[in-house]
Design brief:
- It is built from four helices and three strands.
- It is mainly alpha-helical.
- It has two domains: 44 residues; 60 residues.
- A hairpin with a 2-residue loop joins strand 2 and strand 3.
């Protein structure tokens, strides 16, 4: 027979009370988070009014430091809109647009995004793409 866990000794009513307490605390934290996002939107508006670049569109998304707010295909499509580019030019345009990526496989990621996302990109000629 296996060992009993320490949790097995706790009455079910106590566990239910603890779960309910945690649900209540989570609701309070969600309200606090919504208020913080509202305050952040005001700060973003002030930054834009002073000519700065606020990080619109990413509030509310859990991100670890060092990650990009938008995916590579989206950044490429935005940077290539109305232009014809080679994958090398597209990679440079993505970097200028703020996409952080420079690992060994960065160019492979660019080429994959251009060839696989046929809903976003069109191959104009060999090695040249444009955004749809």
């Amino acid at each position: 027979m296996g060992r009993r866990s320490g949790l097995a000794a706790v009455p079910a009513a106590d566990l239910a009370r603890e779960l309910e307490r945690r649900r209540g605390r989570a609701a309070i934290l969600r309200r606090e988070r919504a208020e913080a996002i509202s305050r952040l939107a005001v700060v973003d508006a002030k930054i834009r009014a002073m000519g700065g670049d606020a990080l619109d569109g990413i509030i509310g998304l859990p991100m670890r430091p060092g990650h990009n707010p938008m995916g590579l295909p989206t950044v490429l499509a935005t940077a290539m809109r109305g232009k014809r580019m080679t994958p090398n030019e597209a990679a440079e345009a993505a970097r200028r647009a703020g996409y952080r990526g420079g690992g060994r496989s960065y160019m492979k990621m660019i080429r994959n995004a251009l060839s696989r996302h046929t809903d976003l990109f069109k191959r104009v000629e060999r090695g040249v793409y444009t955004a749809k």
